Amino acid sequence: MDQDYKAHFKVHCAEIKEWEKIHVVGSLPVLGEWNPRKSFPLIKSDYEEDTFYAVVSVPGTVKEFQFRYLRVMYLDPSENSLCEPIMVLSKWETLNNPRSCLIGVESMDFIARENVIDEFGSYGGRKQISDGWILNDKESVVYFRIHGEALKFFAKSYQNREYRLKVEPFDVRYSEIDGEDVVSLPTPELPCFSNTDLSVLTRDDPIFGDQYFNGSVFRNDMDYLVFRTRTVNLQNLAFRIEFYHKEKRCALSYVLPSSMSGTHGATVSPVIGLSSAPVGHINVNYMIVKRSQYAEKNPEVDSMRETFGRYWRKRNRMLQIGHRGMGSSYTKSIDHRENTIFSLNEAARRGADYVELDVQLTKDLKTVVYHDFHLLVTVAGRDSPSSTPTAGGENKSLHEIAIKDLTLAQLKLLHFEHISRANGTAPDSPVTLSVTPSKNETDELHVPFPSLAQVLRNVDENVGLNIEIKYPMYMKDGSHECEGYFEQNKFVDIILAEVAENAGNRRIVFSCFEPDICTMITKKQHKYPVSFLVVGATNRYMPFQDIRSDCSKIAANFAAGCELLGVNFHSEELLNDRNPIEIAEKYGLVKFVWGDDLNSKDIQKHFKEEMNVDGLIFDRIGEDEVMKQNVFVVENHNRSSLFARSQHNSRSPSMSRRCMSVVE
């Protein structure tokens, strides 16, 4: 009978908070088999500062195991006397490959790693630590955004001052507001909330971190503050906003649970001065992220075995990404209808490394791949001034309707034309504006409105997918792209569930113009990366009202602060100002570029050679070029060839292992 090993774990973590603990998770049953909820707790050393250790038994039959360290905290919902504290994931090691122990080789007298001290987040010459995602049904992450003209004072003594703001959470069950302050009542040992951390998007360092004891400077129309708090009892969580002037607290404001209607919106709270009288008010935008309602049906969502949320392999070759497949067929002279399985596969056949596609939801909550929020539905009727005679002599009228107001069956049944016919942006060139398929477009590959599941099942598995999630936003002129849209958590959960069920091992990158959707995706899962789409300074499009989407420098800071993979920059702004690229490079963000400028080969060359971007998203990919294979097919072929040669020449199995690790 094989003798058990004793595996030692010791890790130093200088950044750990006093209320946090260190756990280890890994491939062994004793380490939870990658389930963070079953991870093994380490003990804090009494002799070495910020150092934690544990010893576990490993069966003698085990030759190798993998593991990662994580930082956790426990929060107490305090709903009743039987309620147990809930483990919340603060930070974890997110290098793509986990730590590894060849226990048979590394042990002496059946004791392994006895004198090894790991550094949290660092191994293999690299370091990467990420925020945890939402692990529990009762857990939520609350975001406060204070920006624009958020402060207004009507008391003259409070006007024309510079203030510093600090946000402090409290539990309304164990606190009472006495005059201008919150008085704590007897509380449970553990709170139901975490500390509130801060990201300042308008400063040089946008990474979330601890607040200063006297808050951070906020000036109307100059600063952009984002506060973040985790909680396991949302209905009893409230916030105190403290105002400081010249190092002294001079006013307070409160955001109570009743102030937040829904999971996304804005609230206006009175500001109370030292005399307990109102002196002004503050506008706060909020977002509440909840655990994916489909997570329990897919256990892999919480597995820590692998993560691609911030993984990107740098290549000498710039990736080519097919825009809506072969391109925008309703506004340009493109031979293949955009956002169809055929168009996506045609781009893949012509050598696209990724293809970009747009996803939204119908009225009956079905995914459809289509770009615009609205369509023109054709209705036959009597003669009228707005009627248009058809080739058959009958009259038809066009009525604008949102895809969110149509069921999938209606999309398949009714006759539609492209929205550009109504808004005056239809091109002069002879392109088809009929969204309804022709008599020749009868198979699943050519028809519009394929589901995301159909795309995942039928598009060439060797091509990556850039899934742009379409969520409407306010424009700078005050208009809205599509009023009355779906609640954000529900909307994102449906799309993530369909991807989880049908994606397999596909390469997928999510993107979205709505920054809060990008944040939400990273808090609901960690397998797939997210890239933030930004318009930036433009004369071609109506700008967004949200400055995060309207300014590429702010966009890069936002992506860095929220630990996104990267940014999809607009070519128009970068051709005039390359500073956003430098910010992205500072924080190791992946740089994609989209825009009509990229239809020029010279502009493509400029972005590749002068700005060293990682990928371009453009129309007509592979046209007028020699047919080529995409980068992943080439890499897989090279990997297979190298492995075959190593197997032929190797003298021991270990040589093939080393060769494989080199090409990875």
UniProtKB/TrEMBL annotation:
Region (Disordered): 644-664
Biased composition (Low complexity): 650-664
GO molecular function, one term: glycerophosphocholine phosphodiesterase activity
Keywords, in A-Z order: Hydrolase
SUPFAM superfamilies assigned: PLC-like phosphodiesterases, Starch-binding domain-like
Any Pfam family hit: CBM_20
Organism superkingdom: Eukaryota
Cited SMART domains: CBM_2
GP-PDE domain residues: 318-628
Domain CBM20 span(s) in chain numbering: 1-122
PROSITE patterns: CBM20, GP_PDE
Biological process, per Gene Ontology: glycerophospholipid catabolic process
PANTHER family named in the record: GLYCEROPHOSPHOCHOLINE PHOSPHODIESTERASE GPCPD1, GLYCEROPHOSPHORYL DIESTER PHOSPHODIESTERASE
Recorded family membership: Belongs to the glycerophosphoryl diester phosphodiesterase family.
Name of this chain's protein: GP-PDE domain-containing protein
Protein's organism: Caenorhabditis nigoni
